[in-house]
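Q: Could you fold this chain for me?
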Amino acid sequence: MAVENGTNSYMPPATLRKFEKDIAPLLSFLASSDDYVIVENEGLESFVSFWNKYGFNCPNFISLKTVNQLNTNFELKPWGWSQIVNHQIKTLVNNKRFDFSLSETKQLFSRHTSLELVAQLNLNKQKHDPFLCVPPNPTITTCFADIETLFNTESNGIVLKTLYSSSGRGLAFIKTHDELCQVRSWVNSQLKQHGYLLAETLLDKVQDASFQFHVNSQSIEFLGLNFFDADDQGRFLKEHFETPESVKPYLPDSNTWLNDAVELLTQALLDMGIMKKYEGPIGIDAMFFKDKQNKIRLQPCIEANMRCNMGLVNLYLKKRIHTDSKGFWQIHPCKKGEAKSFFEDQIEKHPIEMDGGLIRKGFIPLSPFSDDQQFVAWGMVK
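A: Sure. Below is the predicted structure, expressed as C-alpha cells.
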C-alpha cells in the first residue's frame, strides 16, 4: 500500500502500525551480534536475556532517532523498501535508496514482478521434473463481465489480485456465484482505481511453501525451501520447522523436482535482469496442490515478494533448532496486558531443552512479551 501511495505522508492503519512495531524484533533473527536493529519496542530486556541465556547472542537494538549517533559506517537493510522508508532514512548517509517517483521502481515492488517472473517461466522451454507445474500467465481483466466469463470456465473458482498489495491483502477468492456477487462492488472499485485486476485459477491447495533467494549484482543465491500455512484468504498463519506431513509422504524420492524448480526460478530471475534492478532477499511463494488427476504437484511461483518475509526468518530460526525436532511459530493478537502472563505461563509449561547448542524442545519467544504488546510472535519446538 505504501508503494502504491508513493508519498511521504501515507499513514498505514493504526492496527497495522502497531503490528509492525510489536513484531519488529523478528528482524533480529536475520542479524548478527555485531549488527544494529532499529525497533521502537519496550520490554526488550527479557527477550534479549532469554536468547543470550541459551547461547544465541542478540544484535544491538536502537531507535531510529539514535541511528545517527553510531560512530561507524553502516548499510541499512529494511524489511522492505517504499517511499516511506526512503523518507525515514533520508538523513542517514551511505545508504542506497530506490527512486519511487519512477514507474519502473513502483512496478518492481508490486505484483508486476510476479507477472514478469511467470512470463519468463513460460518462455523457458527447458525440460523439468513432471512433479512441477509451471503456472500459466495470469489473465488481465478490465471489467466485471470479463471476470464473470472467466469464473464460469473455472470449476475450482478464481482468485483476483490487485497490483500493489501483498501478504494476503488485495485478494478476492471466488468459489461460488454468491461470492462473485458479493465482491462486485470491491471489483468495480479496484478496476476504477487500478484499471485492471489479475485473475488466476484457484488450485486445490495441499500445502503452502516458499523459495528463498538472495540477489546482488554478482549472483542469485538459493537459500532454501520453506513451508508455511496460510488461511483460505491467503493470510499468514504459521511457519513450520520441518516438512509437514500434509505433503511429506507425497514428495518424490529424488530431489530432482527441487533442483529443477530452483534452476527454473533462477533462470527466470536472470532473464528478467533482476540483478541490475534489485539487491536483497526475494521470497517466491509456491504451492503444493492436487491436479485434476488427484495427483500432488508443485506450482513453483504463486507470487514474488521483493523484501524480507516470514519464510526468510524461518530459515534463520531453523539454524537454532535441532535437526531431529519439529515445531512451528506463529503471530497472534492479544489483549493489552495479556502478553506477559502468556509468556510466563508457556515458559513454565514448556521449558527449553538444549542438545549440542541447539534447541531440542520448548517454548521460544520471537518478540517481546511486554504489557503493551497487542501482537506477539512465538514458537513451539517439539
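A (continued): The longest strand covers residues 204-215.
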